[in-house]
Amino acid sequence: MLLAAPFALIVAVTVVDVLVPPDVHLGPFLIAAPAVTASFAGPRATAFVGAVAVVAQTVVAVARTSVSDLNHTYQIVALVLISIIATFFAHLRERDENRVARLRSIAHAAQSVVLPPLPERAGPLRIASVYLAAEEEAQMGGDLYAAARTASGTRLLIGDARGKGLDAICEASLVLGAFRVTARREQGLPGLIGQLEAGIGSVERTHGVTAAPLDGADEAFVTALVLDIPDHEPVVRLVNCGHPPPLLLSQGRVILLDTAHTSPPLGLSDVLAADATVETFPFGVEDVLLLHTDGVTEARDHSRAFYPLTERLAAWPSDDPAILLDRLRADLQAYAGGHLGDDAALVAVQRIAPEA
Fold first, then answer.
1. pTM of the entire predicted model
2. CB neighbours of residue 184 within 10 Å
3. How far is 226 from 148, CA to CA, in rounded Å?
4. What is the rounded CA–CA span in Å between residue 209 and residue 75?
């Protein structure tokens, strides 16, 4: 459909140029045909449009004077040169687009391995997850989430690695690996937190970083929530390691599950010595837990106001985790004008009634 435009331009310029008085020359307008084509089509299509434009300019020269007329000769030569240049740039653009497509494919494959979608069911739980990357070309960043089944329930992790780029992805992937290996076999959450700390420690050893002051530029850490949801108790047990607290949607209310004791982020245990404190909150049938990273609450609109997550959730039904996250994702992106300032991860968990 777009190719019709340069051909229509060639026809229009050719017809008008033949009919206008001899002292009027519209041939230079034919240069626009291959130049415009190069912006959306490949090199072959651009070269073809350029060749058609050269033929049209030749027809005009024959109809008005002759091909050997100096004015028309210069127009034809200029048109040939412009067509060659436009074809070359169309080749460069197509090559870059193919390269970006390959990078997106690699990023998508990496995401499916490092951060696959959470299972829709885990025992008596329904789970939905969403990852929104701040960078348009990125598929993932430093935000992370994971789930693992144990003999008595389900364990969940959500976190946010410090910084951006490959370092943050490296920290996130090592914490995810440690969680997947140990979440099923560790008896308690404090022991699991210790294994996740070891994952961050491997990042520091990789980069040659030792314990440093809090303002050290090379400090690697991850804020995280680690949750244990037993199958047969209407509660959720959690450890908050410097992460935004979860929200409980219960009977039309939105309750902030703010812990009395917050542990240091993973990776800062040597700097901020503190034991992991497990706290318990009610989590009954049909209740929904919403876990999120700070990319959600720190999203801003055109007036620089933060996203009102609690108010939005209070106005929406929470019967289905997947529907809730679909609505939240669309509303968040619309609120931020389609561009988030930071990566955002969301996990919604609903306890359902046991089957009879």
1. 0.69
2. 13
3. 11
4. 65
